[in-house]
Amino acid sequence: MARAAGAMTAALAVAGGLLGAGVAGADVTPAQENPYERGPDPSEDSIEAIRGSFSVDEERVSSLVSGFDGGTIYYPTDTSEGTFGGVAIAPGYTADQGSMEWYGERLASQGFVVFTIDTNTRFDQPGQRGDQLLAALDYLVEDSDRDVREVLDGDRLAVMGHSMGGGGSLEATADRPSLKASIPLTPWNLDKTWGEVSVPTLIIGAENDSIASVRTHSEPFYESLPDSLEKAYLELRGASHFAPNISNTTIAKYSISWLKRFVDEDTRYSQFLCPNPSEYAIEEYRSTCPY
């Protein structure tokens, strides 16, 4: 009887050990695996590069579409690692998508479906531009060519924009809290309070901006966002309002890192955002690190 009890105790101990090992393994595996990680381990060189690791194709979208005035979609062609998050980008007042063209292949080659859009008129205000950014994202998900829809993860979407397009990015995030990230670039908006925004937001301002000065636009926008929000404010040293219209390594590297961290949930990129970066090109950086 004692022998049987001993055998049973031993068996239970072994089973318990196996179960414990299984539970421990379950705890470790999700922490090590992110289904949205795309591309090789990042480095300073990789996020500053003109091109990332993915080959890119593009699709022109007619101005006859509904809700905005067409544009260009840039997308990775290799889906061996899975699908990609999407980002719509709006130009500023009186500008067209050409002013934002440089973001297309640069971001797409890092692993995003990128849609640079034209607005219905060049004089559209931030609220209208916000609506058009959301219409562009809806087009990506529902009506873009099959080649695009096959590589897009419609649940992981973001917005960017310059000037009034940046103000439109704030409008879009207020209207659609399911967005994963927002990057307003030297943004302009008459509304200075954005306490309702719950989307991780990186605001990029320019020290010498005489059109949307950081004192009256970018800084109040940032300060009005909830302190509980994942947010950051990057001010470009010596830059003008139009800095986002020209290929810019600082804008690119931190935009890529922000999109990777919050659209892809890829914590490999946290190292570039936290602690606050302090390179020469940055006049000031604020954040709610860590994230």
TrEMBL record:
Signal sequence coordinates: 1-26
GO molecular function: carboxylic ester hydrolase activity
Name this protein carries in UniProt: Alpha/beta hydrolase
Keyword Magnesium: no
Organism: Saccharomonospora piscinae
Stretches assigned to the PET hydrolase/cutinase-like domain: 31-290
Coiled coil ranges: none
Pfam (any one): PETase
UniProt keyword annotations, A-Z: Hydrolase, Signal
Family the entry assigns: Belongs to the AB hydrolase superfamily.
Superkingdom of origin: Bacteria
